[in-house]
Amino acid sequence: MDTEPKFFETNPTAGLVGQPLTRIDGRAKVTGAAKYSAEYNNLPGLVHAVLKTSDVAKGRITGFDISAAQKQPGVLAILTHQNIPKLAKTPNDDAGKKAIGAPMGFLPLTGDQIFYAGQPVAIVVADTLERAQYAAALLKVQVQVEKPLASYEDPKAKLFDPEKIQDGKADGHTRRGDAQAAFAAAPVQLTHTYIHAINHHNPMEPGATTAHWEAPDRLTVYESTQGVTRTQKSLSTMLGLSAEQVRVVTKYLGGGFGCKGASWPHTVLTVQAAKAVGRPVKLALTRPQMFTSMGHREDQQQTLKIGATKDGKLTALIHEKTSTTSPWDNYAESNSKIINLLYECPTFEATYQLARADVMTSTFMRAPGEAPGSFAIECSMDDLAEKLGIDPLEIRLRNYAEKDPSTGQQWSSKSLRQCYARGAELFGWSKRNPKAGATRDGKLLVGWGMATASYPVHNSQGTARARLYADGHAVVQSGATDLGTGTYTVMTQVAADGLGLPMEKIRFELGDTRLPTAPNSGGSVAAGTVSSSVYMAVQDVWQKLIKVAVLDKKSPLYRAKIADVEAKAGRLQLKTNPNKGEGFADVMKRADLSDIEGNGQGRYGSGYEDAQAAANADPSKKDEVGHHSMHSFGAHFCEVKVDPELGTVRVTRWVSVHAAGRILNAKTARSQIIGGSIFGIGCALMEATVRDQNLARYTNSNLADYHIPTNADIPEMTVEFIDEHDPYINAMGVKGIGEISMVGVSAAVANAVAHATGRRVRSLPITPDKVL
Ligand code: MOS
């Protein structure tokens, strides 16, 4: 039997883009050949570092007793704030924060203050991992302990009103029309408060750094990050080096979900440790350390007021969010953005309140803002439907936004109606019993729920290089990251498709600052920006080669006009007469070109260039150009069965239909939506990090006590995409699907639970105690 993965299942020269090809890195991953950032074990003299972290959340270090630790065999260095090599800049002041660029929070080992439990207080280096761990255990830290504040829920927490929340997406305040007056005048009013537990990302691969000083001023870092360029910038700035002196490599990533989107202290601490011992140093965070080292989704509470007419049309939306932040930043997910644009509503108001607590900073986590924001709006929409006796899908259609309500802009494309219709058909939504708590399967209560999803196409730029060889292979490069979801595969498809070569003749390289710059793989920008960069690089190859052909007396294209020649399936030919032309290899061989290189830039909104050209031809369309709101949309449908005696909830059926522009690979895209939906089901039913309110420490910082779904918790899932052509967003028309996959999921589950039981739970996760 043929057990080789078949990643070449289609006609190699026609229509590779979109094909459901198996991941080309799959074999390397399952055989262990794929090298992750903590697996560069052949570096000369590689040694191991571990972090010693603080057990207390607040206090001051008064001294260290390093005598026992230092005496252990193999110990090379015990670095604390007293002896660690100094940095040129740290994020601990505003100027440093600004220069470093990447969000990072506070850098420890810079002073004697302890700001959060889990804060590194020392980094211990030894010749083996076990010796470093043992020495760290023997290291004694004397601390003057103070009473910490654990969250906004503590009555002693002072709430403040940030002018700007620090996630780059929303202001602290948004107002559109007079929402207060509209709410007061609304015939139907709903006010509900939603609570969201702390969530941690928990990628399979923890944060990990291998730091190698190849010369006193030349550093290579193998880093588990979603962005090598962002890491390069933060490290070079802190070290006082030029970007060129710092190389960052990330060939494989075992998941990220946003926690690897920023820069975090363990990375630069490892680099400093390598400097101190003069040898390459490797550090991998432990699972418990993952709960205090790379951010989390913050504990938060949202109050949403909805004003509506008696026939269910929205007239007012007022959103207030309160969440916990760290002692040194103003981070909050911008939940209000999605609430402001999901439905047509003439008035809107949003405010944010923060409380400082003695905790590690929160950060981006899959669909930051959109995921919890959609929980509030999508539960409240169902409440409105229930109150007025309208079907949940129908109430959403009645409020369908034909333009972006938050800006008044036209959508670049929106296929949400098709998502609703196809999802409802696949799920059998029309057979839903309108009465809650009235459908049973034996003793189990059965509930059906649905929710809308949306995610923006974020502004993003990137570059790529394609080198085509006369012997019929190509190397294509972009310094992007593959989070594990298929970047290697889809970029190979785009390149192979454009070059007219089989998949196996393309080598796509990523994850290295020596390659052309690509954006951070975050905010769902990688698929669209990098594929557009690759596409443009391939077009550049053809343009250069066409110029060679038309000057070559031996070419059938000699003296043809450049604009009259096209490249199709690896052949240069006349547009008007495809028979007149030749293969690229013939042109290259005669010109003695062993290879030819093209460069491309993928740009957000670059589809506008075509649109602008069209508008120039049709002046009546002029106003449409340059004024589009770009978003993907989707809908989730969920069936749950609830045990009325135990309060347990099982998701028994799932349908997701999304419209996200061009889908580059139907198989990896489906996997991405399945993964995001499971992520959301975990958030809805299981995931919660519990912070002790007295000690400000997590009580369940491990994967035994922090519950995530297993295979047995998840049913067969049905995923479909609506074919959508968007001419505005980028050259490939790709919107991205990493984040939208979990938007609305927790609401769909909560709505199904409410339908099953007749009781609305507004606090995530929906655990049995809340259902009973
Ligand atoms: Mo995504 S939370 O921007 O990695």
UniProtKB/TrEMBL annotation:
Residue stretches making up the Aldehyde oxidase/xanthine dehydrogenase a/b hammerhead domain: 31-147
GO molecular function annotations of the record: iron ion binding; oxidoreductase activity
Signal peptide, first to last residue: none
InterPro entries found in the cross-reference section: Ald_Oxase/Xan_DH_a/b, Ald_Oxase/Xan_DH_a/b_sf, Ald_Oxase/xanthine_DH-like, AldOxase/xan_DH_MoCoBD1, AldOxase/xan_DH_MoCoBD2, AldOxase/xan_DH_Mopterin-bd_sf
Keywords associated with the record: Molybdenum, Oxidoreductase
Pfam families linked to this entry: Ald_Xan_dh_C (PF01315), MoCoBD_1 (PF02738), MoCoBD_2 (PF20256)
TM region(s), chain numbering: none
SMART domains documented for this protein: Ald_Xan_dh_C
Protein name per UniProt: Xanthine dehydrogenase
Species per Swiss-Prot/TrEMBL record: Hymenobacter coccineus
